[in-house]
TrEMBL record:
Keyword field: Repeat
Annotated NWD NACHT-NTPase N-terminal domain residues: 5-105
Start and end residues of each Nephrocystin 3-like N-terminal domain: 201-342
UniProt cross-references to InterPro entries, sorted A to Z: NACHT_N, NPHP3-like_N
Domain of life: Eukaryota
Pfam families in UniProt: NACHT_N, NPHP3_N
Descriptive protein name: NACHT domain-containing protein
Transcription among keywords: no
Amino acid sequence: MENLFQKDEDAADGLTKILFILVRYQNLEESVLTQDAEAISHTTSSSTHELLSNIETRLIDIYQKVYLYQIRFVLQYGQGKWRQNIGGLLQPEDWKQKWKEIEISYQLVDQAVRDRLGARTIDTWAAVKEIETTTVETLKAVHELDSRMKQLGIKGQSTQERDLLLKLPIAADAAFDSAKVLSAQSYCLEGTQHEVLCKIGDWAEDPGGELIFWLYSMAGTGKSSIALTVADALKQRIPLTTGRSPPRTAFLGASFFFKQVDNTRNDIQRFFTTVAWSLAETFDDFKPLVAQAVNNNLTIGTKAPQQQLQHLLAETLFILDNNTYLPIRLIVVVDALDEFASWLQADAKSTFSKPSVN
């Protein structure tokens, strides 16, 4: 994430520099090149014409690079913060390199202009450079003030959202990377369970795949190890098994490892609330939606699983999906759900088959 924040700074820094490039060359075109072109229009000197044409060609090249930079900037930052970060992971932008390409071009123009126009124009540009330095310092001060004001607003909003999320009863020990789970379960050994891990990987990346991948077999055949391996790979962004690429569009949304004999992990009443809480903690865009759902029904933690699924997950994910344009697949890894046979027989089938959930 630190790399993403650095890229944000690089992008903004490049945009500030571009502003003064445009000011500089507008002055060059209006006050220098136009007059120079009129002055040499009656001469037959091929070298003079060639030099002026060379400057104009290089200016066009700079404008082309500037426009491409601005277009990429708008596409990257004209969306929510979480989608920026995810977009950055899927398709990173090297803003420093893009600015370097522009810088190389304008240095060539500067040299050509020095050769043609002499010290008078350079003095003018030095004054522009001084204005640029002063303006950049002013912009930085304004940016810092704006950032502090936003931080105060975000802090207040985050505190309110945090207070609402804390109203949800959760099972923190049920997460795949909790101490209790890791002390009782182990990952798949390298090269083992290759076939089933490949099937899960294909399903996770398939935008048209089934809603649920249900893995079932006899007890002791490694289902928990498979679930642990999948959850870890999705979170760490590493291949699920040997010979596969890291996940591209599939991300770990939440995990829940049931255990009948563990009082911290055997309460179905905390299942959907824990999943919703985990999603909110993982994805910033999801947090205010869950907080609003809790605010709309402050006793949601005591409701039946079907109601919790409907209000905390189905409705909020529907809103998130409509506002997300990246092909993201949020995977919830659940282990040992079959230990709750009574709930499965009575409610699970109807819970997961409601149209609103699908």
